[in-house]
Amino acid sequence: MTTTRLARLLVTAATAALLTPLAPAHADGPSEPPGAEPSAAAPVEVDPTDPDLKLPEGATLAGAKVLDIKSVVEDQSGDERREDTNADVTFALQAEVLFGKDSAKLGPEARARITAIAEEIEKQKATRVRVFGFTDNLGSSAHGDVLSKRRANAVQAVLDQDLNAPDVTFEVRGYGEQYPIADNSTEAGRKKNRRVEVSFPRTAQ
Fold first, then answer.
1. Is residue 76 part of a domain?
2. Residue of 32, 124, 185, 189 with fewest CB within 10 Å of its CB?
3. Tens digit of pLDDT for each residue in 34-85?
């Protein structure tokens, strides 16, 4: 092989490598615990002039479907967040409002906030309540799992006492550092991730 031909091959290979598009980097966004996923996907864009959209003879349109509508309200301090969808109500309370540092003992402010949630559960006539605990990613994963479960248990105990309703069943879980809702690389994000969420079906209008 001549030197000139080898140089041409090298240039061709380098050009092909430069023109080959790189695969997009994969970024994992915040995820949600089981049972919290939306029930409807966003609609796709449709071209109304597309001739392929004509219905075949004798075909009919499917029934209308109501998409999920989510309303999110967060207090000015960021200590409490409420999410309402067509199907569920979710309250998220930051751990610092409920507990001391690295503790599952409820603080003085906790009772009033949990009682307000119990009142909403009664208003919605809900009989199934989920109480999930979460931590940030500091410390060991095992410690976060145990602490988040203990905190969820503490909140559930107050809810059970306030509701005093034997027909209400609870699902209590500690997810530790799983399912973050903010960036764990900053203290502001970690503070949001240290939380207890209480969710229940929306049954009253």
1. yes
2. 185
3. 666 655 555 667 676 777 777 677 777 777 666 667 778 877 777 899 999 9
Domain presence at residue 45: no
> What's the confidence (pLDDT) of residue 67?
62
Which of 114, 38, 121, 29 has its CA nearest to residue 72?
A: 38
pLDDT of 150 above 80: yes
Judged by DSSP in three states, 169 sits in strand
Structural domain range at position 173: 71-205
Q: Which amino acid is at 74?
A: E
Domain assignment of residue 154, yes or no: yes
CB 113 within 8 A of CB 197: no
Q: What is the CATH number of the domain that holds 109?
A: 3.30.1330.60
* Mean predicted confidence (pLDDT) in 91-113: 92
